[in-house]
Backbone:
């Protein structure tokens, strides 16, 4: 198989090669060195701008593609540089300057406002530019781009200002060299493109034409030449912080404080060290916790800035789930692990942990990442967590004369040992569209606890004309555990795809064997599977009389168990989505899945041969989104599922209106409801039987989010979520060897009533570039009991009988640039 794959890749890469943008067709200008830096005030009256070459003749990028912009909305740009920074000015014509949308937002948050965007690619590789955005309000956003994907968690410190006059609006920008990565060469040419968004017209304009029928948008940069005698600066930025937190629960108040620092240091002209010393996660947002009755863990979004910023390289191969670091320790005392006989040391069946810890403390973490001028990306990540212990209560039965008595005792145990997490990534890019990556993750735990290692080779290869591609990976995991012999697992995926003009398509094969397990540092819900898959689609490239765009798509999968080769199911999807000229967006799809041999729901291990026969499913769903330019915007979706020859039924909907009261204040509410009648799922094991339940499930989720922006540097925001999940069991059944259920009248279980309530109130003030003061308040309540028959309002009354947790925190972060500090002293 591998020889065939290699042969096909060679054939693909040998096809006629024409780059998405021919070099001799590129727009090219010379930049101008200045000895007098312009004042960044948004007014384009500095003399230094007069001698700079004019960049203009913008074209429409979307919805129409390739048309020259009319003079009424034309844009002009100028670029200067000196020893410290690149300076950019733009004058954007608009016949109605007073009507330019200007909804306020704070740093790195977008809003309903026009914007000016510049991408800068010092290596001119067509894949990894830096992106800087200024909205018509003056708000800043920035991102690091890789293969067309924007990472807005990346942040730099730079300057900008805007103004409005009778011609339209203007912007000035100063991008310090510390915000970029470039080689130390005497004469340089950099890839540039400029974008302008016009909300009222629903248009985006660009300096160089981006052909939406082929390639990625980053492959169409223009070229700005003649950067002379500029040198990469010493890139040392310090972010010292101080925080104080109070936490009140059940009448007890705890106070905590912390001081620490984050460091960014340029090791070379292309590589950066990020380190966090004494990390502080006191103001992390709440997780959207839900009642989970399935066989797999719930995955949560990462909200800690250190793990979201600049992680593009570390996410290669999908082996890094950062919530593993500093999350709750593995529950060695759970009933499931006890039933499986997974005992560590002297743990016994009646041992129970007192006050199980919610997290493991992270001591420190570092990242080293960058990319050479030849396209080789190198990433090294390392984090250390401390040893976490807990008090365990043991209850033992002893004989005292003729009586059996219970004797309690306590002992301390290690729940999570001192642990080191490590990632190494080598990522070679070439041809402006292709990459091959080698990734290794390693988790080393002190003492008797298990160690884990995963290695992957990941590839995305395209012909130079961007028409054909091969995409895939091969990965191997190795786990060393005292309880099990070291085992090795592996997985493989490869697909061949086509993409040119209106059509896109892909066909491939993937599998994970029964021992593949990357979950010590990654996340995988299920292994021991193999799938043949195919997907494709057709899309418009230009707007029509009634639509800005529309597209159709489909996919199909044939699924098998890998261990036995048993066919398990086939699923199909056909769908479409579109946007009208009035910016009403809608879509939907129809799904079908055959009867499915589910080896995961019984919780017996996939090699046991025990499965549950999920019924044949037919599903339809759709969604709408109204014009976001209007004060009132509505997003909504709904679905319905029917199961063949089975009483199970599913349906649900969500409605999310958002109203913009002013350019400074907006409010959004969302209600989501899901109902399943006669759901069938695993409950427990009893007297050698695997017990399933017939149950009615309902979920309500209410969320509110609002913000008031005092300015682009100061805002107050509210985030609220109440989740209610209720389960009523109607009857119980034993799972038979043929995957079907047989009624069990003897087993008696309990209903489930699950509530999670969170409210966050945040005030953010950016009092200086890169520096913030954040005041944070949280109210949280959690409850789980058996009162599932309560109506909505009585359930709320029941919830508020529980103890509430109140958290208040203040955090101060200050940005220090080494170069400025050096100049001062």
Residues:
């Amino acid at each position: 198989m591998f020889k065939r794959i290699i042969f096909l890749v060679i054939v693909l890469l040998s096809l006629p090669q024409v780059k998405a943008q021919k070099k001799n067709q590129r727009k090219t200008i010379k930049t101008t060195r200045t000895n007098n830096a312009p004042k960044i005030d948004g007014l384009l009256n500095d003399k230094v701008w007069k001698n700079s070459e004019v960049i203009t003749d913008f074209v429409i990028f979307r919805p129409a593609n390739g048309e020259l912009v009319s003079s009424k909305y034309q844009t002009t740009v100028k670029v200067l540089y000196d020893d410290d920074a690149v300076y950019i000015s733009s004058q954007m014509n608009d016949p109605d300057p007073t009507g330019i949308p200007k909804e306020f937002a704070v740093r790195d948050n977008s809003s309903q406002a026009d914007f000016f965007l510049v991408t800068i690619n010092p290596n001119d590789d067509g894949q990894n530019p830096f992106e800087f955005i200024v909205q018509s309000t003056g708000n800043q956003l920035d991102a690091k781009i890789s293969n067309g994907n924007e990472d807005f968690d990346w942040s730099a410190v730079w300057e900008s200002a805007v103004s409005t006059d009778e011609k339209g609006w203007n912007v000035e920008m100063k991008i310090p060299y510390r915000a970029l990565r470039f080689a130390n060469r005497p004469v340089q040419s950099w890839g540039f493109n400029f974008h302008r968004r016009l909300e009222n017209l629903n248009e985006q304009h660009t300096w160089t034409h981006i052909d939406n029928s082929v390639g990625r948008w980053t492959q169409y940069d223009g070229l700005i030449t003649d950067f002379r005698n500029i040198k990469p600066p010493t890139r040392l930025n310090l972010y010292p912080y101080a925080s104080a937190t109070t936490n009140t629960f059940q009448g007890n108040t705890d106070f905590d404080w912390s001081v620490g620092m984050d460091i960014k240091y340029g090791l070379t002209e292309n590589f950066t060290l990020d380190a966090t010393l004494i990390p502080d996660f006191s103001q992390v947002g709440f997780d959207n916790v839900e009642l989970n009755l399935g066989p797999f863990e719930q995955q949560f979004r990462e909200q800690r800035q250190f793990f979201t910023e600049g992680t593009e390289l570390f996410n290669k191969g999908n082996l890094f789930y950062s919530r593993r670091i500093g999350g709750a320790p593995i529950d060695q005392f759970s009933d499931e692990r006890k039933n499986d006989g997974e005992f560590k040391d002297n743990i016994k069946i009646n041992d129970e942990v007192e006050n199980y810890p919610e997290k493991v403390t992270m001591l420190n973490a570092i990242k080293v990442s960058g990319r050479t001028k030849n396209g080789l990306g190198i990433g090294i990540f390392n984090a250390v967590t401390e040893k976490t212990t807990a008090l365990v209560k043991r209850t033992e039965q002893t004989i005292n004369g003729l009586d059996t008595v219970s004797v309690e005792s306590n002992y301390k145990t290690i729940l999570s040992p001192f642990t080191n997490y490590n990632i190494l990534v080598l990522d070679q890019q070439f041809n402006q569209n292709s990459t091959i990556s080698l990734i290794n993750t390693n988790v080393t735990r002190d003492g008797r606890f298990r160690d884990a290692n995963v290695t992957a080779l990941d590839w995305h290869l395209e012909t130079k004309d961007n028409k054909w591609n091969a995409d895939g990976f091969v990965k191997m995991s190795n786990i060393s555990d005292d309880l099990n012999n070291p085992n090795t697992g592996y997985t493989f995926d490869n697909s061949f795809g086509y993409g040119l003009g209106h059509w896109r398509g892909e066909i491939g094969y993937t599998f994970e064997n029964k021992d593949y397990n990357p979950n010590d540092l990654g996340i995988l819900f299920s292994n021991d599977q193999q799938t043949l898959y195919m997907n494709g689609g057709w899309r418009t490239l230009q707007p029509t009389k009634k639509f800005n765009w529309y597209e159709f798509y489909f996919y199909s999968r044939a699924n098998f168990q890998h261990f036995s080769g048993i066919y398990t199911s086939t699923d199909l999807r056909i769908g479409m989505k579109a946007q009208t000229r009035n910016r009403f967006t809608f879509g939907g799809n129809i799904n079908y899945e055959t009867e499915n041999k589910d080896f995961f729901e019984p919780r017996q291990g996939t090699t046991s041969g025990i499965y549950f026969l999920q019924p044949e499913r037919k599903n339809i769903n759709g969604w709408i989104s109204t014009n976001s330019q209007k004060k009132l915007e509505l997003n909504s979706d709904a679905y319905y599922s029917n199961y063949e020859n089975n009483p199970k039924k599913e349906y649900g909907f969500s409605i999310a209106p958002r109203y913009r009261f002013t350019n400074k204040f907006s409010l959004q509410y969302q209600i989501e409801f899901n109902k399943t009648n006669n759901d069938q799922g695993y409950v427990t094991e009893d007297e050698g039987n695997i017990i399933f339940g017939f149950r009615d499930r309902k979920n309500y989720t209410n969320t509110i989010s609002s913000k008031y922006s005092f300015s682009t540097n100061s805002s107050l925001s509210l985030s609220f979520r109440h989740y209610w999940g209720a389960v009523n069991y109607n009857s119980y059944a034993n799972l038979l060897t043929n995957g079907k259920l047989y009624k069990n009248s003897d087993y008696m279980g309990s209903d489930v009533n699950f509530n999670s309530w969170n409210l966050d109130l945040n005030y953010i003030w950016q009092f200086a570039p890169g520096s913030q003061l954040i005041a944070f308040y949280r109210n949280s309540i959690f409850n789980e009991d058996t009162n599932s028959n309560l109506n909505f309002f009585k359930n709320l009354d029941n919830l508020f009988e529980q103890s509430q947790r109140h958290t208040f925190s203040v955090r101060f972060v200050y940005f220090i640039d080494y170069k400025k500090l050096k100049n001062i002293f």
